[in-house]
Amino acid sequence: MMRLFLEATIKIAILIGGLMTAAAYLVLLERRVAAWVQDRRGPNRVGIPLTKISLFGLGQPLADGLKFIFKEEYTPAHVDRWLYTLAPLSILAAALATFAVIPFGSVIPPIGEGGPIPLVVAPGVDVGMVYVFALSSMAVYGVILGGWASNNKYSFLGGLRSSAQLIAYEIPLSLGILGVVLASGSLRLDTIIDQQAATGVWNILVQPLGFVVFMIAAFAESARLPFDLPEAEQELIGGYHTEYSGMRLLLYLIAEFLHMVTAAFLIAILFLGGWHLWGLTGSGDEITLFTAVLRIVVLTVKVLATIFFMMMVRWSWPRFRFDQLMSLAWKVMLPLGLVNLVAMAFVVEYRQWFAGTGTWAAVALGWVVLIGSSVGMALLAPLSSDNRPRSASEGAARQQIFS
Amino acid sequence: MESVWLPIFLFAATASLLSVTMVVISYLVGPQRQGAVKEMPYESGMDPIHDARRRFDVRFHLVAIAFLVFDVELLFLYPWAVASQNPAGLEAAVSEGLVSGRGLIFAEVLVFIALLAGGFAYAWRKGVFEWR
Q1: Is residue B8 part of a domain?
Q2: pLDDT, tens digit (0-9, with 9 covering 90-100), for B28-63
Q3: Is residue A137 within 8 angstroms of chain B, CB to CB?
Q4: Smallest Cα–Cα separation from A240: which of A145, A320, A326, A137?
Q5: More reliable by pLDDT, B1 or A80
Q6: CA-to-CA distance for A350 and B106, rounded, in angstroms?
Q7: Which of A67, A140, A190, B18 is the most exposed place for a label (fewest CB within 10 A)?
Q8: Residue A302: per-residue pLDDT
Q9: Element (H, E) at A107
C-alpha cells in the first residue's frame, strides 16, 4: 500500500510537471512554427533574465507565466460568480486528470522487490479508453459553463457552437476507437500498444480509414484550426472566453494545449504503435534500462511529430464554416466510421484467414476500403463549397428572401 | 479494487488543487481595481442592449438529440468489441456452451449496425443534419 502510494505520487509529480512545462513550451513552439511558416522571426529575444543572452526565446514561457500571475483577477459584475470561476477550474482539472491512464512509456526494470514498474499513473485500470473518453468529454462542461456564466452574447454563442461541435465529433471519435478496440480486444491503452508491438502491425496499416476518421475527429475535439469555430476571432471575439482575463484565461489556454497533447498521445498510441518501432524496441516486459529509455524516446518523438503536424495544419488551412463543419461530422465522418467498423468486424471475425501472411490481405483490404469509400464519398456528396440551390423550389425560395 | 483507483483519485485531487492554487495565488498577488465601464459586458465597444440569455436556435437541440441516440447506440457495441477477440470473452462463452456459436453473435451485431444505419438514413431524410 505504502509502495503503491509512493509510486503513484512520484509518477504524478513527473507527469504534472512535464505536462505543465510542455504546455508552456508548446506555446513557444507554436509561435516559432507560425513565424517560420509565415517567414517572420517570432519570439526570439527573451533568454536569461538580467543578461543580454537570448536562448532562441526560451525564456518567453517563464516571462508569460509570471506576467499572468501578476495580472488582476477580475470578475465582471454581470456574470454568475460561482460558475464563472468553476468553469476554467473544471476544464483544466479534467484535462490533466485524463493522463492518469495514458502510458508515457513502456515499463522500467524493477526497483527493489516487485515486478517491472509500468510507466502509467494508474496501471491496471481495465476501462482505460472509456475513462479517457469520459474525462475528455468534461471539456464540454467547461466550455458551456464558461459561455453561460459570462452572460455575454459572444460568449453565449461561442459556448453553444463549441458544445455542438464537441458532441457532434464525439461520435466519429468513438467509432475510430471502436475499430482499435476490436483489433486488440481490450480497452487498456498499454494492452493496445502491446498487441501492436507483438504483431508488429500498427493499427494505421490495417485500418487507415479508421485513422483518418479518428484524426479528423481528434482535431475537432481539441478545437485545432480547421475546426476552431468555438473562438473564431473574426466572428465571436474570443468565443466562450471573451469575458475571461488573468489566471482564469490562462487555465483555459493551458487546457486547450493539453487537449492537443492528449489527442497527439491517443493518435500515437492507438494507431502509430505507441513505443514500438520495428527492429529497435522489441516487445514484451523483460527489458533493460536502455530499452526502457529508448521506448520513452520513441513514444515522445511520435507524439512531438504528431503535434508538429497539427501545428503545420493550423497554419496551412482556412477555417470551416459552421454548416460545413456540421455536415462533415454527420454526413461524412459518421458513415465512413461505420464502414471502417464493419470492415474491421469482418477482419476480426474471420481472422484465421488473415493470420500469418494473410496479414497482408488485411492490410490490403484496409487500404481498399479507404480509397473506395473516399472515392464513393466524393462521387456521392456535393462539394461543400457549392452553395447553389439544389432544386428549382429552393432557388425560388431564396429569390423571395433576397428580393 | 481500491488500489487500482487510488492513483486516479490522487491524480484528480492533485490536478484540482493545482488549478485552484494557481487562481488563488494570482488573486492574492494581482491588483484590484473596479470601474463602471470595466464591469460592462464586452461587446466590441457598443453598449449591450439586453441580457445575453435569450432564446436560441432549435437546431442545437436537434444536434443534442441526434448525439444522444447515436452515442448510446455505439456504447452498446463496446462490450462486443472487447469480448469478440478476448480469450476470456466470446471464446470462453462458446466453449462453455453459453452461446451456440460465434456466427450467431456476429450476425446479431451486423443486424444491430444495420438498424443503426437505418436510423441514420431516416434522420438524414428528415433533414436533421441540414444546417441552414
Answers
A1: no
A2: 888 888 877 777 777 777 777 777 777 877 788 888
A3: no
A4: A145
A5: A80
A6: 10
A7: A67
A8: 92
A9: strand A107-108
Which of A71, A322, A338 is opposite residue B131, by nearest beta carbon? Answer: A322
Q: How many angstroms separate the CA of residue B71 from the nearest CA in chain A? A: 6
**Within-domain flag for B20:** no
Ordered alpha helix ranges (H), A237-288: 246-270
CA distance B60 to chain A (A): 6
Q: Which of A8, A92, A242 sits opposite B7 (nearest CB)?
A: A8
Put simply, whether B6 touches A (Cβ < 8 Å) is yes
- pLDDT tens per residue, range B68-122: 888 888 888 888 888 887 777 777 777 777 777 778 888 888 999 999 889 888 8
Residue with cell 432544386: A391
- How many domains does chain B fold into? 1
**Coil vs helix vs strand at A336:** helix
Residue B14 lies in a domain: no
The C-alpha cell at A311 is 501545428
Return the H-helix or E-strand segment holding A117: strand A117-118
A170 to chain B, any CB pair closer than 8 A? The answer is yes
Q: Is A108 helix (H, G, I), strand (E, B) or coil?
A: strand
Candidates B22, B25, B39; nearest CB to A77: B39
> Smallest CA–CA separation between A170 and chain B, in Å?
8
Mean pLDDT across chain A: 83
Q: Which residues of A touch B18 (CB under 8 A)?
A: 16, 92-93, 96
Residue A326 sits at the chain B interface (C-beta within 8 Å)? yes
**Chain A residues touching residue B85 (CB < 8 angstroms):** 182-185, 348, 351
Identify the CATH number of the domain in which residue B101 sits: 1.20.58.1610
Q: Count of alpha carbons within 13 Å of A245, Cβ hemisphere only? A: 16
In a domain, residue B78? The reply is: yes
Does residue A305 have a pLDDT over 90? yes
User: What pLDDT score does A215 carry?
Assistant: 92
User: In this structure, how many other beta carbons lie within 10 angstroms of the beta carbon of residue A391?
Assistant: 8
- With pLDDT > 70 as the criterion, what percentage of chain A qualifies? 92
Q: Which residues of B touch A183 (CB under 8 A)?
A: 85
- B57: cell is 436556435
Q: pTM for the full model?
A: 0.88
The C-alpha atoms of residue A354 and residue B85 are separated, in whole angstroms, by: 14
User: How close B96 comes to chain A (CA, Å)?
Assistant: 19
* DSSP-assigned letter for residue A300: H
Domain encompassing residue B108: 55-125
Task: Inform me whether the pLDDT recorded for A328 exceeds 60.
Answer: yes
Q: Hey, what's the cell of A201? A: 502491425
What Rg do the C-alpha atoms of chain A give, in angstroms?
A: 23
Which of A181, A331, A348 lies closest to B129 in CB terms? A331
